[in-house]
Design a protein that fits this description.
The protein is of the alpha/beta class. It has a domain of 149 residues: Rossmann fold (3-Layer(aba) Sandwich). The protein is built from 17 helices and eight strands. The strands form two sheets. Strands 2-1-3-4 form a four-stranded parallel β-sheet, sandwiched between helices. Helix 12 links the parallel strand 5 and strand 6. Helix 5 runs parallel beside helix 7, helix 9 packs parallel to helix 11 and helix 12 packs across helix 17. It is globular, with a radius of gyration of 20 Å. The protein binds Double cubane cluster. The site of Double cubane cluster has 21 residues, from helix 5, helix 7 and helix 16.
C-alpha cells in the first residue's frame, strides 16, 4: 500500500479513528457484525474474533461524564472507572451503545464492582482472573475461564467457535501486534524518528480501526515511510529519552506526554496497556489454542497481580533497549495497585539502572496542566 499523505496527516488520521466511532460502529451493526465491548487488556480478543465479532475497548478517557457517574459512585474512585460507568449510564459512548455484550475481568476492585452495575445496561460476562501469574492453579483457572468465555459467546451469538477459527484469529491478531510492535519499536532510534505523541496517536488510534487487515497494512506502510525518511536524514533533535509506565494512557491523559515533550524531552517508549503491555508478547501459534491464549494473557504485567515481576522485567528490558534516561510513572487518582507499586518501580529504576524516576498522579481534568509542566521541567533538567 502506498501512502500519499505526509506523516503528520497520517498520524492525525489515526487519532480521528476514535472520533469517528459512531459511524464505524453503526456500519458494523448495519452489516450485522456483533460487537463485544471490553475494559481490559486481559480480555482474550481472539475468542470473540473467532465468533465473528469485532472487539472494542470501552475504557473511557474523558471527564465528560464523571459528574454523572459521581451521582452513583464514590468520588474517590479511579477516573477510568467513573468515566466508563458515566458513558454507559448516559448512553453517550457509541461503542457501548452498539456493544451486544460486555466482557470484564476481576482485575482491580473498582472495576470488578463496576461490572455489577453495568449489568443494568447491557449483558455482562465477567471472567475470574487469578491474582498471581505463577503456578499451575492460576494457569488452570485462567485457561478454564477462557473456555467458559468461548462457551458463553457461542450461546450468546448462537455460533460455533471452532479451534480452527481461534487459530485463525490468533494468527491475525499476532500480525496486528507485530505490525504495531515494529512501529512503536521505532522509538529505539536515537536521535528519535518521531515523538511519543505521534507513537500514541497511531497505536491508540489503531484500536478503533475495525478492519484489521487494512489497519495492519496501514501501520506497516507508516513504519516503512518513517524508516525511509529517517535514513534520508529526517530526524528529531537529541533530547532526554523518557519511558512512560503505569496506568493506561490516552485521551485526557495525553496531557502528560505533552508536558514532557513541551518541556525538553521525548517519550520514546510506553510500558502500559495502551502500547507494550497489549502487544509485546505474541500468542504461541504452535500450541493448543487455549494453552497458548492462557499463557499470553496471564503474563501481562498488570499491578493487580501479586507479585508482579513481569512488569519489572518489561521495564528493565525497555530501559536497556530504548536507552532510557528517565522513567515517568503515570498513576490515575485512586488507583491503589499502581500507586502502591510506585515504590518498587522507583527502587528498581534507581538502584538497578541508576536513572531518575518520577511518579505523577493525575485524573481526566485539565486543571493540573500548569503543575505538570512545572514538575516535568524540573525532572527533565535533572537528566
Ligand atoms: S491489564 S492496567 S487495562 S486492569 S487505572 S481501572 S487498575 S484503578 S486499567 Fe488496567 Fe487491565 Fe491492568 Fe491494563 Fe483499576 Fe487502576 Fe483504574 Fe485501571
Amino acid at each position: 500500500m502506498r501512502l500519499l499523505k505526509n506523516l503528520p496527516e497520517i498520524f492525525d488520521s489515526f487519532s480521528e479513528a476514535r472520533k469517528n466511532g459512531f459511524i464505524s460502529a453503526k456500519e458494523l451493526k448495519d452489516k450485522n457484525i456483533p460487537l463485544v465491548g471490553t475494559f481490559c487488556t486481559y480480555m482474550p480478543q481472539e475468542i470473540a474474533m473467532a465468533a465473528g465479532a469485532v472487539v472494542v475497548s470501552l475504557c473511557s478517557t474523558s471527564d465528560e461524564t464523571i459528574g454523572e457517574a459521581e451521582r452513583d459512585l464514590p468520588r474517590n474512585l479511579c477516573p477510568l472507572i467513573k468515566s466508563s460507568y458515566g458513558f454507559a449510564k448516559t448512553d453517550k459512548c457509541p461503542y457501548f451503545y452498539f456493544s451486544d455484550i460486555i466482557v470484564g475481568e476481576t482485575t482491580c476492585d473498582g472495576k470488578k464492582k463496576m461490572y455489577e452495575y453495568l449489568g443494568e445496561f447491557k449483558p455482562v460476562h465477567v471472567m475470574q482472573l487469578p491474582n498471581c501469574q505463577k503456578g499451575e492453579k492460576s494457569f488452570e483457572l485462567w485457561k478454564s475461564e477462557i473456555v467458559r468465555l468461548k462457551e458463553k459467546l457461542e450461546e450468546f451469538f448462537e455460533v460455533k467457535i471452532s479451534e480452527d477459527k481461534i487459530k485463525e484469529a490468533i494468527i491475525l491478531k499476532n500480525m496486528e501486534r507485530q505490525g504495531l510492535k515494529d512501529f512503536y519499536s521505532l522509538g529505539k532510534l536515537n536521535p528519535p524518528a518521531l515523538s511519543g505523541t505521534d507513537i500514541l496517536k497511531v497505536v491508540y488510534g489503531a484500536t478503533f480501526k475495525f478492519d484489521k487487515e487494512q489497519c495492519i497494512e496501514e501501520v506497516r506502510s507508516i513504519t516503512e515511510k518513517v524508516k525511509r525518511e529517517y535514513e534520508e536524514g529526517k530526524r528529531l533533535d537529541s533530547k532526554p529519552r523518557i519511558l512512560i509506565t503505569g496506568c493506561p494512557i490516552g485521551g485526557a491523559t495525553e496531557k502528560v506526554v505533552k508536558a514532557i515533550e513541551d518541556n525538553g524531552a521525548y517519550v520514546v517508549a510506553f510500558e502500559n496497556c495502551t502500547v507494550s503491555k497489549a502487544n509485546d508478547l505474541l500468542v504461541d501459534e504452535n500450541k493448543d489454542v487455549f494453552d497458548a491464549l492462557a499463557e499470553k494473557y496471564l503474563s501481562i504485567g498488570c499491578s493487580c497481580m501479586s507479585p508482579n515481576p513481569n512488569r519489572l522485567e518489561s521495564i528493565g528490558r525497555i530501559i536497556e533497549e530504548y536507552k532510557i534516561d528517565g522513567v515517568v510513572d503515570v498513576i490515575l487518582q485512586a488507583c491503589h495497585t499502581y500507586a502502591v507499586e510506585t515504590l518498587s518501580i522507583k527502587r528498581f529504576t534507581n538502584d538497578k539502572f541508576n536513572i531518575p524516576y518520577m511518579a505523577i498522579e493525575t485524573d481526566y481534568s485539565q486543571s493540573d496542566i500548569a503543575q505538570l509542566n512545572t514538575r516535568m521541567t524540573a525532572f527533565i533538567e535533572m537528566l
